[in-house]
Amino acid sequence: MPELPEVETIRRDLAAPLLGRRIERVRVYHDDLVLGGSSRQTFQRNVRGRYFGTVARRAKYLLFPLHDDASHQGPPARIMRVQLRMSGQFAIGPTRPDTDDFRHPGLDLRLDDGQTLFYDDVRRLGGFDLLRPSEWLAVENRLGPEPLENGFTVAGFRAVLAPLRAPIKNVLLDQKRLAGVGNIYASEALFRAGIDPRRPAGSLSSEEVGRLRRAVRAVLRAALRKAGTTIKDYRAVNGQSGSFQNELRVYGREDAPCRTCETPVTRLVQAGRSTFFCSRCQSD
Known about the structure:
Elements: H1 4-18, E1 23-28, H2 40-47, E2 51-52, E3 56-58, E4 61-67, E5 78-83, E6 88-93, E7 105-111, E8 116-121, E9 127-131, H3 133-140, H4 154-161, H5 168-173, H6 183-193, H7 206-225, E10 266-270, E11 273-277
Antiparallel strand pairs: 1-7, 2-4, 3-4, 4-5, 5-9, 6-8, 7-8, 10-11
């Protein structure tokens, strides 16, 4: 599933071409693309004729504010929330991309400048829903802090972790505790911080929490500079791949030598997800 760097890369790619554009036509190809119990006919009716505001991101969600007028000022009438899941991808242009990895149409939004926003999803795991601003606020209030914002402090992070006995890797994946971090960047951050992923979250000292906070922020920023990590399905807008996969230190490198000490990288399963770490560099 795309994590913070991937979703933020897509947001940046779409922000300028969509801002202020009117949606002239809407086509939803599959009923299950519309989430939240709404029909695709209702979804299409509520999207058509509205104007895009500034594309946003919160955690792993991509958010499209939809306004009733071209000024796109003030609260939007609806917020179109997108969950990309494993293989959702966007393209924008006059025609649908004619490539092998963009042949599973999910949604088309025809814009007033002749361009179309295309959504494709080979696995059909992603989806769209429409929320009123108050509904989105209720969702947002259940999410943890954004790790790249100033509000993500050592003291605040320590307060979150202190009462928890769950493994620190599992806690990093909990979007109610920390928003936007997933499996790849949790493993990478723990390696950079030199912390065993099996450690109970509450056992980390203040110094270790500070190290982990710095590592989380550093790895997310590094991935953003490389437009994210493309291991299999992820693509940015118009089919562009990320390149951070070339800089991964432990993730996906089971039995390969650690880039620091040459100890074979270990893989274990935590909460149904693969964790990769160096038993030497991340020893207690």
